[in-house]
Amino acid sequence: MNTSFREKSVWASLVALLVFFAYYFNRVRSIPLEKAEILTLFAGSVVVLVVLQIALQVAVSLVNPKDAAQPWDERERLIKAKAGEVFGVVLAIGALFSASTAFFGAHPLQMANAILLSLVGAQIVECVVQLYYYRRGI
Fold first, then answer.
1. pLDDT digit string, tens, across residues 1-10
2. Burial class of residue 112 in the structure, from the number of CB atoms within 10 Å of its CB (0-12 exposed, 13-18 middle, 19+ buried)
3. Cα separation of 117 and 113, whole Å?
4. Where do the structural domains in the chain lie, given as residue ranges?
5. Which pTM was predicted?
């Protein structure tokens, strides 16, 4: 399978998001709604995710430094734009869902995690759409 640098970069982001947030949401599900513990988990998670994403992107860049230095071509910009449109729709639906949890008596931390889930879900969908377009040959 011949993949471009940008496609490898999207794969790295997708794997990091899936693995990391599967762990995060599994942990949150098992923690009682005590602010300190959940906020500590969230803050630590953000730091770990940022470091993980940076490390993966550096690793992908080191494999093919010549390709990493290339500017985005028209096809890559088009793929990013089309995936961004889907991201926006998914995020809007997720925001409506997150806001609607208030009507069902959700705890504020549950609402915050619903918003986070919406953001993460939209980002995962964006990565999947990008990969689809890279493979499809747009």
1. 567 889 999 9
2. middle
3. 6
4. 5-136
5. 0.86
